[in-house]
Amino acid sequence: MAAPKKSKKEPPKQESAETSTIREYAEALVMAVILALFIRTFVVQAFKIPSGSMLPTLQIGDHLLVNKFVYGVRLPFVDKRLLEIGSPEYDDVIVFVFPQDRSKDFIKRVKALPGDRIELKNKVLFINGERASDEHGYFDPLPDRAARRPRDNFGPETVPDGHVFVMGDNRDHSHDSRFWGMVPIKDILGKAFLLYWSWDAGAFRPRWSRLGMRIPT
Hints:
Elements: H1 17-42, E1 44-48, E2 62-67, E3 72-75, E4 80-84, E5 93-97, E6 105-112, E7 117-121, E8 124-127, E9 130-131, E10 154-158, E11 163-167, H2 177-180, E12 183-184, E13 188-200, E14 205-206
Antiparallel strand pairs: 1-2, 2-13, 3-4, 5-6, 5-13, 6-11, 7-8, 7-10, 8-9, 11-12, 13-14
């Protein structure tokens, strides 16, 4: 009886150099996308200024970097903060989810913190009964604008726990906490810290002098 023939093992197919290169590029691209999404979600995100509510500090067409880690790690889609690191401070310029339309992000300046008693008297800001430092506030120079409430006279009102009171620097042309209330701290996306690009649409040219400008607080 003849012995059974041993099956010959075929040698593994060698991956071509071209296929190997494509695979390496694909893996690198996937890793880059994952890293970019992680950074955008938890660390830094870019925002563009669409309106004049923060004039003259921020111009229409300014592009900002926002530190999303400064107040802690915020989980996307669930409106919860996983890790508390810091808290908003006076005059921080923050980006947050607009309370009246959660599909929009707003940018304003923090003017009062939890527990503060805030009041506006004829455009003058008072915190806990004392006139507040308000060097970034800009007011319309036209003398014929009549005093209005709540734009020019507001409160007194106490900021509840877990909230901040925000205002635009362009006080006569800003839709802010005077009109729609306080911002929950859990809805703050981050703190604006650097201007990396600015485009003047009217003049159709970049504002070179603003590039690299830190956001004043």
